What does this fold into?
Amino acid sequence: MARGVVDSPMTPAQSALLGELCLVLRDDPRIGSAWLTGSLAAGRGDPWSDIDITLVVQGDLISGLLTDLMREDGPLPATALRLSQFGRLVNGTTPDLQRFDLLLSTPEEFARQDAARVRRLFGDPDHAPPPQAPKADAAAAAAAARRIEGLVTEFLRILSLAPVAIGRQEWIVMQDGVAHLRRLLIELMLEENGIGPGERGGAKKLNPFLTADQRQELEALVPPRAVRAELLAANRDLRDRFLPRARRLAAARGATWPAAWEDTVRDSLARRLPELG
It folds into this structure.
């Protein structure tokens, strides 16, 4: 492994697993190079981070390499669970519940990665992706505005489905809707903090990207039981948290507010479900 490859401190167990993976993978001539990616390469790792490795492989060799990596008698360390996804990815969980992901990528695909977020482990250094030019401020602002518009539109869409769930007495489905609304609130908070989709890390890490006040607000939310009154209260609470916050952020970021859609949803709820009108 190249010196200085890891910006984030690694535990002895992480270092040992990474070293074992590199040892068995570097001997495969189909692998042109291997690169540490994910939170450890980006400097955001912690003792619970997965080992994420991208293997640069010619396209016609990917299928055969994936098959060999998935073999129980193949070269990879022992795993308690090993999954293959998308024809490109090996997810491994070791007997002591360490996790690694191996992504098989063509040189052309890997060239589109962010050079600042990868670290070479072994192999051809010429595979390194070129440094990415920073996005123009106007383009980045426009993309953020579109994301905010999408969040608001989707929040109102989920809210508008409450009468359907109530009419059918689908309390479990409505619990899922509340969870979806909560997720949209989290996404909105991340946008408040200027955290774009490519900067958020994996699904198992959120705390570093939220402020203390945001975390306190989210942690105080009580999941509703599958009871009509609690579900309606949760919808109201999330609505009253999300929409004012979204309106302020939309104004600050130049996003177009979907006023006609909001009026439609509010008018419909006022007629069909006054508790949410």
